[in-house]
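Example record

One chain of 71 residues, shown exactly as stored in the release files.
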Amino acid sequence: LKERSELLEEQNNKLTTELTNAIDHSNDLCEKIVLMEMSRDKLQARLTKITVDTGYVSMASRQTTPDCYYK
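Predicted structure tokens for this chain:
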């Protein structure tokens, strides 16, 4: 019984360590995602400002916007 208990405790410790590592990895990935989203939002804001400042209208938006808006 003592042997079985020690074996289960060892397995529990191993699983706990693996779970902790998985949680740490997940947290790292979440942090990277947040940083990427913040970077994307900053780039989108810069692009919007440049677009407004230059008056540029992309071909993609012209395809969905009626021609009367461009006269």
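Notes: DSSP finds two helices and no strands in the chain.
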